[in-house]
């Protein structure tokens, strides 16, 4: 945990729409995506990779975490733009809202 938000006990569920800022990097430190410097992103949690779904269900609004996601909970063996297949991913995520 990089910083702690509201300790109000409200956590997103897989069906929640979450709003967040994030930066994604590969294990070698190469940034492949980021919302910083722009508008926060909003998405239904269940539409994301399994590693995000698991981690974000434990976050509260205002929490800022750095999470390491093994390939099995990320994109698996499939390559994505800027991400080689089988990659461990590192995300810095700040949860800004839950709807």
Describe the structure.
- The protein has one domain (17-98): Roll (Chitinase A, domain 3), CATH 3.10.50.
- The chain is mainly beta.
- It is globular and about 40 Å long.
- The model has no long low-confidence stretch (mean pLDDT 95).
- The chain has one helix at residues 50-56, and strands spanning 17-26, 31-34, 41-44, 64-69, 89-98.
- The two termini are 22 Å apart.
- It has 1 helix and 5 strands, in the order βββαββ.
- The longest helix is centred in the middle third of the chain and has 7 residues, at 50-56.
- Strands 1, 2, 3, 4 and 5 form a 5-stranded antiparallel sheet that branches.
- Helix content is 7%, strand content 34%.
- 18% of the residues are buried.
What can be said about this structure in brief?
The protein is mainly beta. It is built from one helix and five strands; from the N terminus they run E-E-E-H-E-E. It has one helix spanning 50-56, and strands at residues 17-26, 31-34, 41-44, 64-69, 89-98.
């Amino acid at each position: 945990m990089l910083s702690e938000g509201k300790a109000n006990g409200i956590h997103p569920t897989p069906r929640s729409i979450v709003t967040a800022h994030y930066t994604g990097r590969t294990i070698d430190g190469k940034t492949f995506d980021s919302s910083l410097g722009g508008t926060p992103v909003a998405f239904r949690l269940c539409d994301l990779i399994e590693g995000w779904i698991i981690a974000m269900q434990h976050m509260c609004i205002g929490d800022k975490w750095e999470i390491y996601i093994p390939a099995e909970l990320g994109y698996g063996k499939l390559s994505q733009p800027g991400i080689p297949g089988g990659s461990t991913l590192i995300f810095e995520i700040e949860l800004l809202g839950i709807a």
